DNA sequence: TTGGAATGTCAACAAGGCTGACATATGCTG
DNA sequence: CAGCATATGTCAGCCTTGTTGACATTCCAA
């Protein structure tokens, strides 16, 4: 992008990379890749009477222990009724613990129990294994590009949430 | 992260790019980006009493006009009952046409009508606009990496379907 | 002619979204 | 202190989109 003048190969690429055909390929790549992305955890969850929604909650509670319900709602982008249904089962099953806030007692702070952390590991190990294989196949430069494009694709709110998590809230 | 003496920004990256932390970032990037990826079509579809399932069917029928139901089932990865419910409404609403096969009359070949193509355009224009913006922000080299990683993340079956579509079935 | 493939359809069910309404605690502000 | 706002939980009902199982029809191919 910032090299001087273009070689012909380079220029062709630059001129073509915004064609509808290229964009369509990216769209289909996202579609098919997302299926692979969720496939392994989904298989594990199916045996446990849990679904993708439980996985997401567990992931982000593990990521930011002590996070509040409101926080989680903002990250997950669902209604509190929808999240609550999921949290209720996770708490009932002893995977998540909900503690009343100390400074503000209206808030509930969420933590994984040991059992919750065990499931989280199992799920994220599976998902990371696929990610690791993909990263290895593609190489570090491809990975940098991958993240750049994904980040540019996010809504502003989500990009902020992503960066906050990434850089340590 | 990228300062420094060593060409080692590079070497650090190479050594670190398979850490769990890097993998987790990729996982979260996929999660947040996929939300953005589907957001614009979802908004359009909400007004039309259609959902993401209709969008997917319309997309792949447009992509491969005359495709059979079985073909579509393999690509979408859902049951025929689930797909059929979607196709029935699209056919009833005059967006999709189903023609009995000529060589094999058991097969149904699916085509978009003019109205179907109009909706397809509306949906994919919205999705492409976001993709285009992301591509432009990230640049052609990032885009190449993006596609490489996504392709490596797919299940084998899906990768085959993706490549077949990409290279012109 | 017969088996199997491709398709369509019915019924029932579940997950996980949604809205709307309402209850309870708690914090904050005038 | 009164009253409003905030954070959370919960009930009820609805929708989409996935699932399984069963069954009918049509038609190709051995």
Automatic annotation (TrEMBL), chains A, B:
The keyword Transcription regulation applies. One of its GO terms (molecular function) is DNA binding. It holds the Pfam family MarR_2. One of its GO terms (biological process) is response to stress. Keywords: DNA-binding, Transcription, Transcription regulation. Residues 20-155 form the HTH marR-type domain. This is MarR family transcriptional regulator. It comes from Sedimentitalea arenosa.
